[in-house]
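Retro notes
What went well: the complex prediction finally ran end to end.
Inputs used:
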Amino acid sequence: MVSGSGLLAVMVMLPFIGALVPGLMIRAGRDACAMFTAVPTLLALIFLGILAPEIMAGGTVTAKIEWLPALGLNANFFLDGLGLLFAGMILGMGLLITLYARFYLSGEDPMGQFYTYLLLFQGAMLGISVSDNILLLLVFWELTSLSSFLLIGYWKHLPEGRQGARMALTVTGAGGLAMIAGMLILGNIVGSYDLSVILQHGDEIRASEYYLPALILILLGAFTKSAQFPFHFWLPHAMAAPTPVSAYLHSATMVKAGVFLMARMWPVLAGTDEWFYIVSTVGLITMVIGALIALFKDDLKALLAFSTVSHLGLLTMLLGLGTKLAAVVAVFHIINHLTFKAALFMSAGIVDHETHTRDIKRLGGLASLMPATALIAVVAALSMAGIPPLNGFMSKEMMLEEVAHTDWWGGKWPIIILATVGALFSVAYSFRFIGHTFFGPVRDDYPHHPHDPPTGMLLAPGFLAVLVVAIGLAPSLIAGPIVAAASTAVIGGGELPYYSLKLWHGVNPALFMSIAAVLGGAVLLWLHRPLDKAWIRTPRPEAKAMFDRVVAGTVLGTRWLIEGTHNGAISRYLSIFVVATVLLGFAAFQGGGLPEQTREMLPVPPLVGVGFVLTMLATLATVFAHRNRFRTLILVSVVGLMVSAGFVYLSAPDLAMTQISVDTVTVMLMLLALHFLPKYTPLESPLSMRIRDGVIAVIAGAAVAALAYSFLLTDMSPISDYHLANSYKGGGGTNVVNVILVDFRGYDTYGEIVVLGIAGLTLYALMEALLNGPASRRLRNWTFPPDRSRDRHPLMMVVATRVMMPIAALVGVYIFLRGHNMPGGGFVAGLVISIALLMQYMASGFAWTQERKRFEYHAMIGWGVIIAGLTGAGAWLAGAPFLTSAFGYFTIPPFEEFELATAMLFDLGVFLTVLGAVMLMLYSLSRMARYAGETVNLEPMDYDPSRRVDAAIEADKKDDA
Amino acid sequence: MIVTYALIFAFACFGFGLLSTMWRMLVGPTQADRILALDTMVINFIALIVLYGISQGTALYFEASMLIAMVGFVSTVALCRFVLRGDIIE
C-alpha cells in the first residue's frame, strides 16, 4: 500500500506534468489530445478516491516536502474535508469540461494549447485546495490568476477576450498582492506559515492588534477573486472566454477560490464583529446587485455571470454570518451551485454553438427544436430559482432560515428583506432564462437553424442535471457525508451543529420568504418588458469605462515617472542613483549605528604621501582633460598605476600584478575602439548642469571617503579572520586570495568567468552586426591621415616581442602553477599570456599572427567554462556541495613533494576563459580596421635584414657561377 | 646600517622622480611627453617596489616587479603606436 502522503504529493503534481502533453499531442488528433488531458485528471481523481475514506472518517492526510525552510516556505500539503470537497470538484469538473470542450472547440481553435492551459489551471487550483503552507498557497493563487488569464484570452483574435483577460488579471492580481501582505502578517502573528499551525491559533490571531489589517488584506484577495462588490465587474467581462472556460473557471472553481479561502480561514478569522459586518454586508450587497443586473442582461452568458456574482455573494454572506450552521449551509450551497450553474453554462454554450447567438432577444421557442438541451437547462435553471424538489431549493431554504434569525445592523428586518429581494430577483432571471430562451413561439430568424448537439456535448451537462435532481431527492444519501466532512473542516473541528438535509422543513419563516420570492419573481418576469425599457433609460456607472480610465491614468502616471527618471541619459540614471544612495547613507549615519572608533591613525610616510598626491593630481587632471579622450586614457593609466602601488604597499603584490595587467589590456582595447571614435568629446551640457553634476559627484565621493574612514578606524571582526584560519586547512593553499577565489567564493568566480565569456562573445556578435550593417559603409569610406608614421612593423619591436614571448609564456605558466600557495593564479596568468600574444599582434600585424594561431578563441571560452563547471560538479560525485575542493600531496621520486588540488583544474578554467575572452574582444575590435580598407601584412616586419643577406648570398653564387 | 640610509636616499630620489614625471604629465605639452612621463613613472614604480622588497627583506616583491616590468611597457608601446599609426593592431 502506497502511503497517503505520497499519493497526495503525486496527485498535486499530476496536472502539471500532464500539462506538458496535450500541447504536443495535438498532432496525434483531437481525440487523442482530449484523452491525454483526461488521463492525468482521472488518475488524480482515482488517487483522491483512494484517500477519501480516511478523510471521510475524520482524518487528514499530509505530505511534507522541505523547499525553502529558511523562508518558512515548504511544499506541505494536507487534505481534510474541505480540501477533499474542492479537489473533488476541481478534478470532477475538469473531466466533464475536458469532454465538453472536445466537442465545443471548433477545428480552427488550437486545442492542444487549450488543454495545456486547462491542466495548468487545474493543477494550480488543486494546489490551492490542498496547500498546507500559506506561502505555497499564494504561489498557487497567483498561478490560477495567470492561467486564467491565458484561458480567458484564449481567442486571441477577439479584442473583448484580450481586454477581459487583462481586466481579470489586473483585478485578481492586485487582490492577490494585497493577500500576500495579509498572509505575511498572519504568518508573523503566529510565527509559522503552516496552515495547520495557523488554524490552531485562532484566539491569538483575533486578539492581535494586526488582526484588522490582516483581515482586510486577505479579504481583498478573496473578494477580488470571488468577484464580490465592488470588484464584481471583471467576471462578466471574462465571459469573452470560450464557454468551457466560463463553466469551469467562472462558475465552478476559480471564483470559488475566494470563498474557499474564507472557508479555510473561517476558524481563525471569523467570529468577530469586523468579520461579521464586512463579510456579510459585502456578500449581501453583491447578492442583491448581481441578481438585479442579471435580470436585465440579454446575453445568456452575461446573465449567468451576474447570477454567479449573486450566488457568490450569497456564499460570502453565509460565511460572514459567522455561525456554524451558516457555514454548513455555505458548504452545501457550494456543491449545489456547482451542479446547476455549470450545467447552465454548458447549455448556454450549446445554444450559442447551435444558433450562433446568445442574445435572449433573438431566441425563444427552442424547447421543441432542441428538446434534450432544453430539458437539462430547465432543470438546472429551476434549481437556480430554488424550486422544489431540486437541490437549489434546499440550500436556499436553509439560507433564508439562517437569515431569518440573524441580527444585522441592529435588526432582523433589513437582512430578511434584502435576502428575500435577492432571492426574488434570482427567481425572476431564472424564469427569464427558461421562458425567453426555450419557450414562446418558434422563430424563423435564428442566425443558424438550431437542433440538439452531438451526444458527447450533452453528456457533461446531462450528468450535472441528473445530480441536481438526485441531490434534491436524496440529499443525505448523496451529499450528506461530504457536506459533513467539509463542514467539520470549515468550522475547525468539533461538533457539527444540528441540521438536516431534506426538502420539507415544515412551515417556517423561510417558507414564506421563499413563496414571496417565487411569486414576486413571476410578477417581475411578467412586467419585464416595461421594466427593461426603464432599466435601459436609467443612467448607471459603467465599470469597464471606469476601469479603462483608471488604467489609462495609471499608465499616464507611470509613463511620467519612467520617462522622467529613465530618459535614456546615463547621467540622469547615475545622478538619481547616487543622490538616493547618499541620502539613504546619510539617514543611516544619523541612525547612530556607527561603531565606536577605536583605532589610531597610522603615520603617513612621505613616500606614501607622494603616491596620494599623484593619485589626486591625476584624478583632478582627468576631470579637466576628459574631453581629450586620448589624454584621459594616459591619465587613467597613472591612476591605475598608483592604485597598484597602493596594493603593493598594503602587502597585496598579486593584486598589484592583476591591476597592472588589467590596466594594460583595458588601455589596448580602448585604443582600438578610440581609433574609430571622435578623439574629443563635444561640450553638450550647459554650465548649470555641469555644476549640479559636480556637486553631486563631490558629495558622493566625500560620502564614500567618510564611510571608508570611519570603518578603517573601527575594530571589526571581519570575515577575513575566518579565511586566514581556514585557507590552508580547508582549501589546501597558503595564498588566501587565491583560495578565496577558487574555493571559498568559487561560486562567485564561476559566475564571473561566465559573465566574462558572455561579454567576449557579445562583443564579437555586436561587431559582426556592426560590420554587416550600415556602419560598415562609413568604415569603407574611411580615410587615413596622410601624416602617419611609415614605421609599421619596426624590426626592433618585432625582435623584442619575439624574444619576450617564450619568457612571458613561461612566467604565465609559473604564476599559474604556484598560484594556490604564492601570489598568482589563473586570472593573472591568463592576462599575462594574453598580453604576450597582444604584443605579437601589435608587432607583426594581425594577419601574420592570426595565421599562426592554432585555437579558436570562442572555443577557448567554452572550454574554460566547461572545465570550471565540471570541476565544480565533480564535488557532487564525492557527495559534497558544488565546488568543494579536494587536495592531496604526492611524491614522484626525482621531484620534491608537491600538491595537487582540484582547485587547480578550476583555475585552469578561469585561465582559459580569461585568455579566450580578452583575445576575442581584441580580435573583434581590430577587425574594424580591415573593413576600413587597411591592408594586411603577411611579412613579420617592414624590413627583414635576413633577406638582404639571402640576396647577397644569391648574388655571390651568381658571381661565382 | 648603511643600507638604511641608502634606502632612505633612494626612496627620496624616486619619490622626487615620480613628482617630476607627474609635472611633465600635467604640462605636456605634446602627447609624446605624456607617454614618456607615464613610462618613466612605471619605471620609477618598479624601482620603488624593489626597494620596498629590500626594506622588508622579502623576495615576493621582486617577482611582482619583474612581472610589472614585463607588462608595464606594453601600454607604452600601444599608446605610441596609436599616436604614430592610429591603429595599434594592423
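What we learned: The two ends of chain A are 105 Å apart (CA to CA).
What to try next: split runs per interface for comparison.
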